[in-house]
Amino acid sequence: MQGQLTEIDIRSILQLIELGQRTGELYVEAYGSSAWVKPTQRLESVVSQPAWLVFFLNGQIVYAGNTDGSLGRLRDYLHHYNLHTALDSPAINAIASFNLPEYGSLWTLLERHILSPEQGRSILQNMVRETLFDLLSLHQGSFVFKLGTALNPQLTTLEIGPLVIEITKQIQEWKQFNPHIQSPQQCPIIPDLESLRDNLPKNAFARLSDWMDGRTSVRQIARYLNRDILTVAKAIFPYVKHGLVQFVHNVSEPVSRYPDGQELWQESQVPRIVCIDDGAVVRQTVEQILDDQGYEVTSIGNPLKALSLLFQLKPDLILCDIAMPELEGYELCAMLRQSTVFRRTPIVMLTGKDGFIDRVKAYMTGATDYLTKPFGASELLMLVEKYVGLGNPQRPQPENLLAEAIADELEMGATGQLSRSIHNPS
After folding, report:
1. b/e sequence 390-412, b meaning 16+ C-beta within 10 Å
2. Which residue ranges does the chain devote to CATH 3.40.50.2300?
3. Cβ partners under 8 Å of residue 300, min gap 6
4. Class of domain 272-411
5. What is the DSSP secondary structure assignment for residue 417, as one 8-state letter?
6. What is the chain's percent helix, strand, coil content, to nearest 5?
7. Are 218 and 235 in contact (CB under 8 A)?
8. 117 phi/psi in degrees, rounded to 5
9. Which is it for strands 158-159 and 60-66: parallel, antiparallel or unpaired?
């Protein structure tokens, strides 16, 4: 799986990996087109654009970081435990010559009992959160996800869903600091020490004055304090607004910006319907028919992009084609059924296939019903009314409807082609 972030966002990619319980690694590069490079080449060459790697085990995150091969981030986190000089030992320096030196160095510190397992897990979790903050803020770039063996050994694994929710909320809250603070890489500096001294407790002033030198970023301060950057920014922000603290950019770091949000439907009692089909004619037909009847409907041609919008929009009914490039309708349906968000949402397969085996496969992947193309307005409206009709206060539960229809076909002695449409049983 690979592509541009203009086609699918990082959140959707992570959801795909989580729902598919994938093991492998995700490479993301900002503002350029990525080409997958061999693992032995990744950290040997200097990349012109910021790039990150995220490693997964069965749909959970094992480790995440950038590709520059530096131990600076790990050194900052060790500062909190007064262990930053531990990276200067010859054994750690030897690790740094290999791939993923940060992860390897962390494990070496654990094996030598310089770090406790609890400290190691805390550092690793903070590294993952920090990387996700950058990735979820990114809106221009490219990505490649490659299936592979798990990164070994694993110190811990982190669930993607809760992390994405947490970090997305942080990014949204980060916007309140604009234009005063624009990036975690900005470095605070104190233009007037005496004025700040008068406004801070003695201990707080002593600590902050050491770090607010115009060379230490907000992110580094957060690492030193073992706090998230939002907490640190909130603490500094009042002094920034009063001019007691100013910011300069650390030009060696990229400036992270949150992507423009997708336009979402307004809250409404009108049922929301999404049609996923790579055929423009089908999408336009469905939109016209349902729009004329007062339904809120959107159509999406790219199934990968559709996954992102589905989690944002949470439609009442999903119409999904089967034969699509990049992600087949069956696979998309199965992924959605693994999420509690869509466990009870009616999913109707739209396809030109009308074989009995296709219907069985649709049922096995969690589909609710099946509508064979070409279909007319009356057929589509009858099916939509059946599940989310504007005048239907008691909508049927979706779980067993397709199974019941298949059982009916078996009783009728179906052996190949169905003799009637499953969405309009006699």
Report:
1. eeeeeeeebeebbeebbeebeee
2. 272-411
3. 274, 275, 276, 283, 306, 309
4. alpha beta
5. B
6. 45, 15, 40
7. no
8. -55, -35
9. antiparallel
Q: Tokens for 364?
A: 């096995």
Q: How far apart are CA 204 and CA 193, in angstroms?
A: 13
For residue 70, the number of C-alpha atoms closer than 13 Å in the C-beta half-sphere is: 13
To the question of pTM greater than 0.90 for the whole model, the response is no
pLDDT tens, position by position, 18-49: 988 999 999 988 864 333 333 333 333 333 46
Query: Considering only CA atoms, which of 181, 191, 316 is closest in space to residue 250?
Result: 181
How many CA atoms, within 13 angstroms, populate the side-chain half-sphere of residue 177? 27
For residue 234, which phi and psi values (nearest 5 degrees)?
A: -60, -40
Beta strands across the sheet bearing 317-321: 296-300, 272-276, 317-321, 347-351, 369-372
What amino acid occupies position 82?
N
pLDDT given at position 37 = 37
Q: Counting Cβ atoms within 10 Å, is residue 174 exposed (0-12), middle (13-18) or buried (19+)? A: buried
CA–CA separation, 344 vs 132, rounded Å? Answer: 30
Q: What tokens does 404 get?
A: 């019941």
Type and span of the H or E element at 86? none
Q: How far apart are CA 55 and CA 46, in angstroms?
A: 21
How far is it, in rounded angstroms, from Cα 61 to Cα 53?
A: 11
